[in-house]
Specification:
Elements lengths: L1 E6 L5 E8 L13 E8 L1 E6 L2 E6 L3 E4 L5 E3 L7 E8 L1 H5 L5 H4 L1 H5 L2 E4 L3 H20 L4 H22 L10 H16 L6 H7 L4 H12 L3 H19 L4 H7 L5 H12 L4 H4 L3
Antiparallel strand pairs: 1-2, 2-8, 3-6, 3-8, 4-5, 4-7, 6-9
Helix pairs in contact: 4-5, 7-8
Organism: Metabacillus rhizosphaerae
Pfam family, one: AraC_binding
Keywords: DNA-binding, Transcription, Transcription regulation
C-alpha cells in the first residue's frame, strides 16, 4: 500500500493519493470544498447524495460543497484513486471569470466525467504531475499543484459542456428502494425520525432497513441521519447569524448537548468553529 496526504493550513486545498488493497474512505463525508475523485484503477461503488453509482477505471466524480457521499463496496479490493479537495477561493487565482469557465461545477450538485482516450491520457498526466508536486514539495509546489488541478477541472467542464449527461441506473431494485428512503430522510431530517418509524413508512422491517441501508449507503441509519443534520447545521452556521441554541432544533436534535457532541464527532470541530470563519 502506498499513499500521500497533503492539507494546507487553512484547509482550502487537500490532496490524497492511495493505492489500496482494501476499502478506505476519509472520515469526513461532506466538505466546504469541491471534491474531485479520480479512479485511476479498479472499480468502486459510490453513494452520492441519494443514490449509488458504479465508478469504473478512468472515471472522475466532481462533488459540490456539502453533498454527502461515501464509497461503499468493501468487498472490492484493489484500487488506486486520487482525491483533491479545493475551495472556490483557490479557483479564482486572479481570474474573475472562473465561474464562467467552470460553469458546470456551479450548476450541478455533482458531475460524472467519462472522457475519450485522448482526454483520459491528458488527465492521467495531470494527475501524476499533481502527485509528484505533493511528493517532492519543491518551492511553490502548492500553487503549482493548484494550477494543475484547475487544468483538470477545465478539461472536465469542457467535456461536460460538449456531451449529453449520462443517466446512471441504480445497480439493483434494492438500491433504488433504499434511495427512496434516503430522499425521505433528506427531506424530513428536521423532524423526529427513528429506524422503526421510517421502516413503518416504507412497509419494511427495521431489520431489513438497517441491513440494506448500510449495504447500499455505507452508513448506518443513525450515522446517515446525523450526518445530514450536521451538514445542514454547518451550512446555517456558515451562512446565517442564527444562534446555536436555535440551530440544533431546526435540524432535528433534541438537546444542544447531544447536538454539540455529534457535531464534534462528525466534523472534528465544535459548532462555533464555523461561525468564527465568517
Amino acid at each position: 500500500m502506498k499513499s500521500i496526504l497533503f492539507q494546507n493550513a487553512d484547509e482550502t486545498f487537500t490532496v490524497s493519493h492511495r493505492k489500496a488493497l482494501s476499502h478506505h474512505m476519509p472520515a469526513n463525508h461532506f466538505h466546504s470544498t469541491f471534491e474531485i475523485f479520480y479512479l485511476i484503477s479498479g472499480k468502486r461503488e459510490f453513494f452520492l447524495k441519494d443514490r449509488t453509482l458504479v465508478i469504473n477505471e478512468g472515471d472522475i466524480v466532481i462533488i459540490s460543497p456539502n453533498i454527502l457521499h461515501r464509497t461503499t463496496n468493501t468487498e472490492i479490493h484493489k484500487h488506486e484513486r486520487l482525491i483533491v479537495n479545493i475551495h472556490e477561493i483557490c479557483m479564482a487565482l486572479g481570474n474573475p471569470s472562473y465561474r464562467n469557465i467552470l460553469q458546470p461545477l456551479f450548476e450541478q450538485e455533482y458531475i460524472i466525467v467519462r472522457c475519450p482516450l485522448q482526454e483520459q491520457l491528458l488527465i492521467e498526466t495531470l494527475s501524476q504531475s499533481i502527485i509528484q508536486e505533493i511528493q517532492l514539495k519543491k518551492p511553490g509546489f502548492e500553487m503549482y499543484a493548484q494550477t494543475l488541478v484547475l487544468q483538470l477541472l477545465i478539461i472536465c467542464c469542457r467535456h461536460v459542456q460538449q456531451t449529453s449527461i449520462e443517466q446512471i441506473e441504480s445497480p439493483s431494485p434494492m438500491h433504488e428502494r433504499i434511495s427512496e428512503v434516503v430522499r425521505y430522510i433528506n427531506n424530513n431530517y428536521m423532524y423526529e425520525l427513528s429506524l422503526q418509524s421510517v421502516a413503518d413508512k416504507f412497509y419494511v422491517s427495521p431489520y431489513y432497513l438497517s441491513r440494506f441501508f448500510k449495504e447500499v449507503t455505507g452508513f448506518t441509519f443513525v450515522e446517515y441521519l446525523n450526518n445530514v443534520r450536521i451538514k445542514e447545521a454547518k451550512k446555517l452556521l456558515e451562512s446565517s447569524s442564527i444562534k446555536v441554541n436555535l440551530i440544533y432544533k431546526k435540524v432535528g436534535f433534541g438537546s444542544v448537548t447531544h447536538f454539540g457532541r455529534v457535531f464534534k464527532a462528525v466534523t472534528g470541530y465544535a459548532p462555533l468553529h464555523y461561525r468564527k470563519r465568517e
